[in-house]
User: Fold this.
Amino acid sequence: MATGAQITVLFGGKPASHDAAVGTGARRVVNMPAPSAVFVDRKELLADFASFSKQASSPVRARTFVIYGPSGFGKSRGAYACAEREFGRYDFIWLLDAGHDEALGLAFSRLARHLGLDESIAWDDLRDALWPALAATGRWLLVYDNVPDRDAVQAFLPRSGGGDVIVTTQGTDWQGYADVVTAVGPLPLKESVRLFQDFGIDSEAFATETAAIAKAFGGRPLDMLQAASVMRAEQRSPRAYLASLALDAENLPERDPAATPASVAAPGGAAGAAALASAPLTSVATPAIDYDDFRKAHPGAFGLLALFCWFGSADIPGDLIRRQAPEAAGDGPLAAALADAASWDEAFRILTEYSLISGEHDQIGVHDGVRAAVRALSDSATCATAVRMLAAEFPRDPTDTTEWALFDSLAPHATQAAESAAQFGVEPAARAGLLVAVARYYHHRDYLDRAADLFRQAAIGYQAVNDSSGESRAHAGLSRVLFNIGADMTAAEDEARTALSLATEHADRCAAALALAQVLRETGRFDEGHEVLTAVLPSAGLVGQASEVCLELANLARRSGRVGTALRDTKAVVEAMAREYGVGHPSTGGALRQLGMALADVQRYDEARVALEHSLELFTLATGSDSQEMSLKAEESLGTVLVRLGRADEALVMLDHVVTAREGATDRNLPNIAGAKARRSDARRATGALDEALADVEDSIGIFSDLGSDGRAYLTMPLVRKGPVLADLGRVAEGESVAREAVALSEESHGEEHLLVAEAYRGLAEVLRVKGDVDGARAASERAEEIVADALQR
Assistant:
């Protein structure tokens, strides 16, 4: 694909820096390339965009201008030219790469960074904050480059007006959405002649040959550009170049290169569909450059190009390649090209002269068409070199926000190189380690589906070299991603058990056991989860263990009804973390949340409120999507406690926010939604909104019921609330029936001495009081207090 810097080397000029300042109040182009020294006019395209941009942007929705066509037909260059020609109409212009799976997420992180947003917040919150921040820049233009189809970018498209969008794509599914569709076709003959002239080639003296060359390549601009580059570099005439192609006349395309489809307005999609149908979908496969001849003539330059082609297509890190050359390059032509600065410069010059690369020395671009042709001639050793270079410099700590820009810049290259190496079967250990590092970052940033895919690939790589420790880490990572997605707890459990069976080191066993314990907790098997974690601990118990293990153990003790143990262990963890990390560290916040919930279990609500308020404060100040999730959990727990303290109005505001956030998340965790709604029903009931409270508990019951056996243990949560709500609504008999069902279910699921059983008895007592059964209510309350007293002794 073409990149933001690509035109600048091919056509001269210098791109704006990726780190250009914003918010200056002046007209500005932030990360688009500078005006080109050579550009073959697409007059109809430029005229249509000029007309489009002259119209005021809608304050309600962003208008969309789609540039459609096959690879190599100048979609990206056309978009850059449109933005450059009309930049005076916009205050802020931004290029977004959409050319691979995770591209747009990383591009939006970069955009958020430039707009001064906290990119560490959860993706859904970041996306919501981005559009108002973008609106503050004035009239904006976003260029989504190389979009596969509309579904791939749906979540990233603007949610408000105030600006315009350009999309370059090979997809045909924009009818009815785009305001204008422009189908980019072959270059007309006169433009092909002009392109050759701009390269110093006497195309008028060889008019017949120039026309034949244009016809040979179907007027595809990329091929025409490379043909012109070859003629200039090798001082060939169009006649000599044409003779070297050895064309078979029967293979020449029938389409007249002068027939360039025009752009059309497409408000209803019909005209746009016609434009898409008339656009060329293929071009002749005749290569403009004989890559085998090029390899023989310039072995060092070809070796360097082949290395570039195993990285991503945009912003290839030349500085990293040069740093790693002494360790990773080995012998042969590639090593010669990387031997010193002069050799690098010479190889770079040759590649630029032949229009095979673009950009600066540290931000190199290679078109996808070139990449495909060169990779076919490259070997596995060069691909392995790319993997080793990236593995040596890829950051490893996804919690370090100062490294996120480096993560963002290297992640596309790491996945491209590692996934390609898997096809060759080379560098299995290095590529697996690289994939795990990227997957952990994506997991931390909430790109969960892609993280899961990379963990799976890493497990296969470690298995190939019999690295059971590495395979265990990959399976444990996959389990935690699946746990966060929440859609398949059975798969998450299977991955965690596999990880535990493979683990040999203590740290790996703890990580696998923690992943398994979390799944067991989520599915209501608290005692089993506690046993799994306890089994991997040394005789010293919690001493010296990771904070996550300690917190999960205390949580499971609490959930399994051992409240005394939970309180004791959680207090010890809070004190230990405060000593190790400081009272203001997020890890301390996690311990405080657990302590607050344990205190609430035994109705020490004032103490619970203090712990939970401090926990929420710490998570609000922390970074990362994990901290955002923990902040929601702390807010949910605090809201529940405030209801018990008679502050239902405050609680309802908090719980409304939690439910809204959980329902609006891209990866919706259904158990979390159900739990939040059940707790919100307490606040709604306390404020007199009984119908709304009943709707919440019924929604919660429906979600847990749909989860089957995984949700059955949690049905107690909404059921214990439904009975009292029904009684308050005057449906006392129905409420009593539900309350007794809640008692029976809680005893069946958790045992007769569990705190959830005590909560069910309290709910029954409330219903019986409304009924007027004083003795029955007293007996239920006494049974609840007896269970709590016993739990404190355990």
About this structure: Residues 1-27, 248-285, 539-544 have pLDDT under 50 and may be disordered.
